[in-house]
Design goal:
The protein has one domain: TIM Barrel (Alpha-Beta Barrel). Helix content is 34%, strand content 17%. It is built from 11 helices and 13 strands.
């Protein structure tokens, strides 16, 4: 673990983790797809003291129920939120099953520049066959093939982030030089299904490498900075964490909390009339804020952080802000991100050296 502080992330896609969450939202349905909504949720998470906000995404609309669903692209939402926050880390979900890793690298590097080093990337897969048609590509049907695409995609994106050395940009008016071409590098990646030469079209991100998060087992641990660990109970998620080899581990926890107007059980029951709360194999807490604080205290003994998936954002995020995070702070289990720090710094991760600059230094040393 990185230290005594438990880092808290919150998933903020749509109106909440339940597919019918919009029925209990505190806004009109059409406001979901507005910048105002994105900004308000990000501000609430930052003010509460969360380390990280994640934004789910995919090529297809979410859901599969009669409920009205929709979303704006996660990278676009993340860029908007980044410009309106100052300490909150922001990590969009970006699958690379069909997306071009070169384009993904450029988008995420730009997001890190916009946020002044507070960006992350949640690696995911496009498992639904309809996604292939949306991209106009042959389906990647087998789990092993999707895992290969994710593995290769992360390799390419990380290499492209390093294809510009930190001091490649000169901006010399006197000499009319903007770049030092000797500090741009070809990555020359050749995989089973595609090849990428590079270099990138965006300078190296402020963090050097964005914080890469991924579900344990879907991406090799050596490619991740944070492994997202699942398990239906405390014992299962704890055992799963012991096998993780990523620098940091976050537990995945779905939460439904008691509110001043209704118990958590009653809120879940009211939504279950319209659609079931999908079982994703994650630890789930349905109950009081005090009970969640106790659970997070138990998890802090094993995990570096927890990613919370609120049942209904407009209801549960308020309880988290008023009761859960302040209690954790009083117990010194969590700490707010400091202004001016990168997401890597907030998580206790070092800024990595550029692989090409390091190689060049070794070559010069051996001459």
């Amino acid at each position: 673990m990185s230290g005594p502080a438990l880092h808290l992330a919150v998933e903020a896609d749509g109106d909440g983790a339940h597919p019918a969450a919009w029925r209990r939202a505190a806004h009109a349905p059409d406001e979901l797809l507005t910048p105002r909504r994105v900004g308000r949720v990000a501000a609430a998470a930052e003010n509460a003291g969360f380390t990280l906000l994640t934004l789910e995404d995919g090529a297809l609309p979410p859901g599969g129920t009669p409920d009205v669903v929709g979303r704006i692209g996660a990278v676009e939402r993340a860029a908007f939120a980044a410009a309106r926050t100052s300490t909150l880390g922001i990590a969009p979900v970006v699958p690379v099953t069909y997306a071009e890793p070169f384009h993904v690298s450029s988008q995420l590097a730009s997001l890190d520049h916009i946020s002044a080093g507070r960006a992350g990337w949640v690696v995911a897969e496009e498992a639904r066959p309809e996604a292939a048609r949306a991209w106009g590509r042959p389906p990647v049907a087998e789990p092993a093939d999707r895992a290969r695409e994710s593995r290769d995609g992360v390799d390419v994106v990380r290499a492209l982030w390093d294809s510009w050395e930190d001091d490649a940009v000169i901006r010399s008016v006197a000499t009319s030089r903007y770049l030092d071409r000797e500090r741009l590098h070809y990555i020359d990646f050749t995989g089973e299904t595609y090849a990428v030469k590079g270099p990138a079209i965006v300078p190296r991100p402020p963090q050097g490498q964005l914080v890469v998060l991924g579900r344990q087992g879907s991406v090799p641990d050596e490619q991740l900075d944070v492994a997202l660990v699942e398990g239906r109970d405390l014992r299962a998620v704890t055992e799963a964490a012991r096998s993780a080899r990523a620098p940091r581990t976050f537990a995945e926890v779905e939460v439904a909390l008691d509110t001043p107007d209704a118990t958590a059980e009653a809120r879940v029951a009211a939504l279950e009339i319209h659609a079931p709360w999908t079982d994703r194999g994650r630890l789930r807490h349905v109950g009081s804020a005090a009970g969640l604080v106790r659970l997070l205290g138990e998890l802090s003994r094993v995990f570096d952080g927890v990613r919370l998936h609120p049942l209904v954002l407009d209801e549960d995020l308020s309880v988290l802000s008023r009761l859960v995070l302040p209690d954790l702070a009083d117990q010194r289990l969590t700490a707010r991100p400091l202004p001016g720090t990168s997401l890597r710094t907030a998580l206790g991760l070092e800024r990595p050296a550029n692989r090409f600059a390091t190689a060049g230094t070794r070559e010069e040393t051996t001459r």
